[in-house]
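Note to self: keep these together.
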Amino acid sequence: MRSSNPVFSRRGFSRDNGYAGFNTAPQAGGAAVGTQGNPYAQPQAGNPYAQNPYAQQNLQQGAPPQAPVTAGRMTIDDVILRTGTTLGVLIVTATLAWALLPIDDANISRSYGIGIGAALIGMVLALVQSFKRKASPALILTYAAFEGVFLGVLSNIVDNRIADGAAMQAVIGTMAVFAGVLVAYKAGWIRVNRRFYGFVMAAALGFVLLMMVNLLFAVFGGGDGLGFRSGPLGIVFGVIGILLGACFLALDFKQVEDGIAYGAPREEAWLAAFGLTLTLVWIYMEFLRIIAILNSSD
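Structure:
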């Protein structure tokens, strides 16, 4: 299965990347180890990270099989540390942008222009990392820095000019969604399987297409386009966006869990951090949009 996140689907924990399975060497008279009950395992090929690469050669020479090599494998601590570092950089630059880029009448255009420029640079860096075959910590942290500048400016504008306290409300909402999805996933209330993945991807594709059409109408027709991102419809689509973000979190948790179980190399923890950061930013922006719409209609 490929993740909803372009980070994971490009190089991450997908079934065709070489470690999407436990040691899948078949046992005598039995199925491949780790493939029973696992829809993502690939019984046709072994997992080079789940066994000694010289195991087959040793068996052919009559030597006893060796224990799997575990050094340098990704752990949950690695994912937490990298995710915390990435989010930390984003939060620091967002705070600096909030404090150093004024949004008064004389400076709001310049500050907003800087924020949009940072967003475009962050988007380019995200695309570059998504198409790289290996994680680049410097690239990921640079993306987080520029994304933080954009979020800092945008949050400051919404918080001070539209809805007082909107940024904190959006942060609390994002944290609540993250915690809720994590608890539901660990409790088994959310079952990430092929059907779940297919439904989420179809819904996400439809959502993105509608937003693109709305943007085109707004650019060429003026106003709010088809109204999908403002007014009552904007609130509805904002809620849908948050629900999709929650589904993406579940998919990301599954990919991280599989990567750890299947022996992904430690460097993949940076990709996990990058993917989780992308999803959390999405959820935060949807919350911020809903809060802004609710307060602008008062």
